[in-house]
Structures are given as structure tokens and as C-alpha cells.
């Protein structure tokens, strides 16, 4: 019992020692990570938090229209410094070139695998090193998530290793950071890794092997926080509006353009059926349409099918017939 108390007291003290941050801290306006793999997002979280850089997950192969609208909003605000996390297999070279063509200054940090990417991020954001380093499994996402949360709370670099062998990237990272203490997190690492670290002279602590959560989780970080300006809330709202307005305007215009293109391609029978539905409040029984528009039942069925395929209406079963409803806001000439 006494050993457990001593252990938790020591680790609480160690985690509250502030890290050594470089005088020339990296400056980015936005960090981009792939949206189909969680690991790059997790290993980036500590640096996003420490340096107040937002993270945007994106399609690794191409930039869709929504993402482009978001990125153009950043350019309009004069924020052009981007960091891509991962190699060209994580986010493609085509995406990087497209970002540069949009006007961004792009930096890429990525390794041959996730352990090397984590190493390069740690060295990049902590050029002066860190006495304490958080270490998690490269394959156990649950452990990595917990480790990322710990690194965020106490502002320490995060490295990744393999389950039963200390990864070369983690070893290089520890050496380059001049680390003395390694905090292992979770069940995704076995004792072989810890034994290797001890043999190399590192002081190790392992969080996650016991069921009870360690007491330092309830403590607050000693990292200095910026002074809150009385105008910070108003400024935040203003930035949000400036960023969001072009996006909603762009998407709204795109939707209206697509709808107009569809309506312009409608034939007279399709327009007649749509008008009949609109005149009845946007909802009508299909069996009533032949009499209203003067077409046969087979013709009405065919027209309804075409309009449904174009996403303009939908049908719902109602007894022995169908109720036809307008699917979107439509304005016919």
C-alpha cells in the first residue's frame, strides 16, 4: 500500500513538471490530417492543444467542395500556413499540390509509418527536448486515445511503439528529446518494452495496468494559460461568422444551381405533374393525378418514377395507393 502511494505521488509530481518548449515555436494556422484513419489525428492532438492550432480532417485523396470552401475562408482571413501530417500515402501529393495552388504555404511532416510520424512531430514541436515523454501503442487506438488526452493535459510529446518491441522511431525520439522519464499508457504495450527502456537507463511509469485511475487525473495543468480578453467572445463570434458565411453562401448557391439545372431538363409532362402536386400543398394521392393532369395511369406512373429518380419527389405507401410528396423546395416558372 505504501509503495502504491509513493508511486502515485512521484508520477503526479513528474507530470506536473513543465516541459521544455523551444524558443522558436512552430507557427501554423491549420493542421490537416486524413479522415479515414484516427491515429494521425490522435498523435497531433497534443501539439494542436499546446500551440492553439485547429485540426481539419480531410479526404486523403482529393479535396471535396465543402473542404475547399472551408480552406478558402482561411485564405480570406490571411491564414495560409498549413501543416500536413503523414506521408504521401496518408494525404496524397495531388492534394498537397492543390493546396499550394490555392495559395497555401504547405509543410509536411510524415514518416515511413505512424511511429516515425509521431517521432518527427515530437521533435518538430519540441526542438529543445522534453524531460518527460508519453509512450503508447501504435496499434491499440484506445491506449493511444488515453495517451493523447494525457499529453494534452500536461503538454508533453507523444511517441508510439510496437506492442512487444520498442520501435526504432520511439528510441530515436527519446534520445533526440533528451528524455529521462517515460510514461507508458494502456494495455497495448507489454513488459518487454518497459524492460528495454529500463535497461537503456530510462525511468519508467506505467499508467493503465491498474483498474483504479491515478489521482493526478483530477489535477489541473500548470501550463500558463493566455489572459482572456473581454472582447475574446465577441472576436470568436465574429471569426466564426466570417469563416462560415462564405461556406453557407457557396453551398447554398451550389444547391440552387443544381436544382435549376434539373428543373430546366424537365419535360412538359413532368412539369405538369409537379405543378399539380404543388397546387395541392406539396402532397397528393397518386390515384388523383390522372384526372388532374389528363394523362393515363401508366403515363403518370412513369412520370412519377422519373421525378423520384431525380430526387424531386418521394412516394409513401398509403393503403392501396401511394401518397406523392415534394422532396425539396421547388419553384417552377
Automatic annotation (TrEMBL):
Residues in coiled coil: none
InterPro entries: ArsR-like_HTH, Bact_Sporulation_Assoc, Cell_wall-bd_2, DUF7343, HTH_ArsR_DNA-bd_dom, WH-like_DNA-bd_sf, WH_DNA-bd_sf
Molecular function per GO: DNA-binding transcription factor activity
All copies of domain HTH arsR-type, residue ranges: 251-333
A Pfam family per the record: DUF7343
PROSITE patterns attached to this UniProt entry: HTH_ARSR_2
PANTHER family cross-referenced by the UniProt entry: AMIDASE ENHANCER (PTHR30032:SF4), N-ACETYLMURAMOYL-L-ALANINE AMIDASE-RELATED (PTHR30032)
Protein name, entry field: HTH arsR-type domain-containing protein
